[in-house]
Design goal:
Number of strands of chain A: 0
Largest interface: A-B, 46 and 57 residues
Helix content of chain B: 25-40%
Radius of gyration of chain B: 24 Å
CATH superfamily of one domain in chain B: P-loop containing nucleotide triphosphate hydrolases
CATH topology of one domain in chain B: Rossmann fold
Number of helices of chain A: 11
Shape of chain A: elongated
Distance between the termini of chain A: 43 Å
Number of helices of chain B: 12
Strand content of chain A: under 5%
Shape of chain B: elongated
Strand content of chain B: 25-35%
Number of strands of chain B: 14
Oligomer: heterodimer
CATH architecture of one domain in chain B: 3-Layer(aba) Sandwich
Structural class of chain A: mainly alpha
């Protein structure tokens, strides 16, 4: 199409000039269309940066194998009994680990100058943030599905069947929508993507272990047990376990949803404010 | 005040401070439409902060600015709808392909799905990146990346473009391509605010230049005016016979001005306030019978202008270091 004399790796000035002359400014797109375009970008990231997904998916699978076969018998009497206990908790761990990447990718955009590109466009301001939720949710569903499938391959059978597993996964994903704004704020405040990752995991790793994900807190010393009981990750794990067992613990489910809503109510406005001013 | 066409950029007393550091300490700019206007200054002079204020990315702490007739604070969206940014100011996404980057921007600017794709292909073709359209940008070479960067900023042709350090780290051939594109944009009526620390680049492209140092404009004018303001150029002479250089030096010292000897054993330069004096010098040499191989009257380079204005040399980073920063 372009002038045949131009080297293939160089700009063709005549064609550039035609390209410059040929556009009229189209009408501004609506908020929804803009957010969906950012959603599309989020999906492309899942495709192009699979490492992120691998990192967070493999760690829980490793824990699943290690805990079940090394400690499972000792903790619960048999590996299959332990798998029954721990799998819903590992589902929580797997998806919550993935939420840290909401902050990491936001920080990457910020440090690379991509955020400035978006901020220089005449678009609906919250669109980039809301759109990225779409890509994030795909990651959450994949991370959660992988751990459930590996569990089933190892012999885990949820009493509530597929419906129970789907309900538990849905609850964790909704909770993650709330939690991801905490990491988005970190992503906007810290200096580098690595700093966000370190801070995120430094927070979420011990919280996961000081919960009922791996062990029944009944055997823990009093003060520790008291902490584990109020740890949100315990409450969410209890809710998921109850959904997968077919005996929904309404209290735990409601608390999980309220906490998710609370986190979003505080950290979503904070995120949008920081996003505007950075 | 003139009654000509409204200014593309009109800034008055812009100030931006970070903590106790004053990045921009009261900058005034008046940029007419349809030109390349160079903002020249060393690293940390306040160029980028100034442009970020003009591009609505940050709010000025004091002062005001209108871009294409719109206030950058109260009518930020109207400004955004007509400008675009390049380089360090607003990056393309390294984790997407070149084509995806252009389609994304097309969609965000309001093109239809098919329209955005067609525009992306047109630009990829015109900028010579069609072959790498499906590759992730982090695998692009420096020159390709820079072209994509500019392509991304003309998905919809802007009326004003902030061109930030467009050739830092590029080889001379790629650099010339970027300059040609900038000239093509101006030919189509776009105003370009060129931010650079390369004096040669400003000299090549800019119709007007503001020199910024320590957060203020310390000089303003056309490249020729700035050079003239520093005064003298030099009369550069190369003799036929190197043996006679001491004699020629003594003569020019008397007839023209202070002489410096060049590395070339037959070359010497005399500082020279005007062309009449230079002509006298050349005449004297001829009359004395000292053979001249060539002579030229040099204008001072913008480097010298910069040194004269700021009292320190322009700090230009070694291009090699910048190239190495390109993602592998």
């Amino acid at each position: 199409m372009s002038a045949a004399t131009t080297a293939p790796d160089a700009a063709d000035t005549a064609a550039v000039r035609r390209a410059i002359a040929s556009t009229a400014r189209p009408p501004r797109p609506g908020p929804l269309s803009t957010a969906l375009t950012f959603g599309w970008r989020g999906m492309l990231k899942v495709k192009h940066v699979p490492e992120q997904l691998m990192d967070v998916t493999l760690t829980p699978v490793m824990f699943l194998l290690m805990f079940t076969y090394l400690f499972g018998g000792a903790i619960a009497g048999s590996t299959s009994a332990y798998l029954d206990y721990t799998l819903p908790g590992l589902l929580v761990m797997s998806v919550l680990f993935t939420t840290v990447y909401a902050g990491v990718s936001l920080n990457t955009d910020l440090t690379k100058g991509v955020v400035d590109r978006f901020r220089s466009l005449p678009i609906w301001r919250p669109a980039p943030l809301l759109g990225s939720l779409l890509g994030d949710s795909v990651r959450y569903v994949i991370a959660g599905t992988v751990i459930i499938v590996v569990g089933v391959l190892l012999g885990y059978r949820p009493d509530a069947g597929v419906a129970g597993a789907v309900a538990a996964l849905a609850l964790v994903v909704v909770f993650s929508f709330g939690l991801s704004w905490v990491f988005s704020v970190l992503g906007l405040l810290l200096r580098s993507p690595n700093a966000v990752m370190n801070a995120g995991f430094t927070g979420i790793f011990p919280l996961t272990f000081l919960s009922n994900v791996f062990v029944d807190p009944a055997t823990l010393p009093g003060p520790l047990q008291a902490f584990v009981d109020v740890n949100l990750i315990s409450i969410l794990a209890t809710a998921c376990r109850s959904l997968m067992d077919g005996t929904p613990d309404v209290g735990a489910i409601v608390v999980s949803l309220l906490v998710a809503a609370g986190l979003a109510a505080v950290f979503l406005p904070l995120t949008t404010r920081l996003y505007r001013s950075r | 005040m003139t009654l000509h066409a409204p200014l593309a950029i009109e800034a008055t007393g812009l100030v931006k401070t970070y903590g106790d550091t004053t990045a921009v300490a009261g900058i005034d700019l008046a940029v007419p439409p349809g030109v390349v206007y160079g903002v020249l200054g060393p690293n940390g002079a306040g160029k980028t902060t100034t442009i970020r204020m003009l591009a609505t990315l940050i709010r000025p702490d004091a002062g005001s600015a209108r871009v294409l007739g719109h206030d950058v604070v109260t009518e930020a969206d109207a400004v955004r709808a007509q400008v675009s940014l390049t380089g360090q100011l607003a990056s393309v996404d390294e984790e997407l392909t070149g084509r995806e980057n252009l389609v994304l921007l097309g969609r965000l600017l309001g093109l239809s799905r098919a329209g955005a794709r067609a525009r992306a292909d047109e630009l990829l073709e015109a900028f010579g990146i069609a072959a790498a359209a499906g590759k992730l940008v982090k695998h692009y070479s420096g020159g390709m990346r820079r072209r994509l960067d500019i392509a991304a900023s003309i998905v919809v042709t802007p009326r004003l473009m902030f061109l930030d350090e467009p050739t830092t780290g590029l080889d001379p051939r790629s650099r010339n391509h970027v300059w040609e594109i900038a000239r093509a944009l101006v030919a189509e009526g776009t105003t370009i605010l060129l931010c650079t620390q390369y004096l040669e680049e400003a000299d090549q492209l800019a119709d007007g230049i503001a020199v910024i140092d320590r957060g203020t404009v310390i000089a303003e004018g056309t490249p020729a005016q700035l050079k003239a303001s520093v005064g003298s150029g030099g009369l550069r002479v190369r003799l036929l016979d190197a043996e006679r250089r001491p004699e020629a030096a003594a003569l020019l010292e008397r007839a023209v001005g202070p002489v410096t000897l060049e590395a070339d054993p037959a070359g010497l330069t005399a500082q020279c306030p005007d062309s009449a004096r230079a002509a006298t010098g050349v005449g004297e040499l001829a009359r004395t019978g000292i053979g001249i191989a060539e002579f030229a009257l040099d204008q001072p380079s913008l480097d010298e202008v910069f040194l004269a204005l700021t009292g320190h040399a322009a700090e230009v980073p070694p291009p090699a270091a910048t190239l190495e920063e390109q993602p592998s």
